[in-house]
Amino acid sequence: MDSQDARSRARGRPASTLANRSLERGIEILRAFRPGSDVLGNGDLAERTGLARSTVSRLTQSLVDTGFLQYDAALRAYRLGAPVLSLAHAMHTGSAVLHVAAPLMRELAQAEHLNVGLAMADRDEMVYLESIRYSRKVSLRTVVTGQRVPMALTSLGRAWLAVAPADERQGLMAVFARRFPAGWAELEAEILDAVVQVQRRGWCAASWQPEVVAMSAPLRLGHHPVHVLNVSLSTRASVAETARELEPHLMRLATQIDDAFRAGIGAL
After folding, report:
1. Residues 198 and 226: beta-carbon distance below 8 Å
2. Per-residue b or e along 198-234, where b marks 16 or more CB atoms closer than 10 Å to that residue's CB
3. pLDDT digits (tens, 9 = 90+) for 202-256
4. Which fold has domain 3-81?
5. Which one of 1.20.120.450, 3.30.1020.10, 3.30.450.40, 3.40.50.150 gives the CATH number of domain 95-263?
6. Which of 7, 50, 211, 253 has its CA at a distance of 20 to 30 angstroms from the CA of residue 40?
7. Mean per-residue pLDDT for 24-50?
């Protein structure tokens, strides 16, 4: 399986042998914009996407024509257009999973003063669909809806890897090995241990940010792609100690979401 297959599977659909290359490249242009990248010129976009500048120039013109990019003549660069945000809003408000999960997540966060999140996989990252922050301690780490976090380092990503098809997990592990060559042996062991934890207990825990421990569990809800639920806490306690505290809350919430989702399907 090549990286394109892994990316397609992570988006919740099989890889297509008849993919529209121009469309894919146009999407790569949009993907090049990340937080902190307000405007990007053709050179920036070519560097970030690996596309030829002539291809980038052609695609950015089409994206400007359709409104997905805005051209700033003074800066000779592009910024994302309003339709991009509109699509995000449509996805967020139209999610049947979020419709069920968000109220239950908010209830737990408020009652226990925890951070509660729900995420999906995108390539080798996890994207928060919802992030409700009620931490007991002020943390420098602020997570918002739409934010990306690395799959390899987080409990979110490792929980997703635990239930991913074996070939896809293997392809992503090869990506991680290239990205983290210096400490790969230790990181690989952590990921594989997390996979075992999820398969045995239904959850895994990690602390990839200082004094923040997170625990995650995958959710399989009907025909939807796998979502991953997590709870986190700002603490100086060990991962093991914090996991014992968080496990009942996480697994109870996962069960509540699953039950509510099934009940909602039955009511249709």
Report:
1. no
2. beeebbbbbbbbeebbbbbbbbebeeeebbbbbbbbb
3. 999 999 888 899 999 999 999 999 999 999 988 889 999 999 999 999 999 999 9
4. Arc Repressor Mutant, subunit A (1.10.10)
5. 3.30.450.40
6. 7
7. 95
Question: Can you give the pTM of this predicted structure?
Answer: 0.88
129 Cβ contact list (under 8 Å, min separation 6): 92, 95, 97, 98, 118, 119, 120, 145, 227
232/212 Cα distance (integer angstroms): 7
Round to the nearest angstrom and report the end-to-end CA distance of the chain.
38
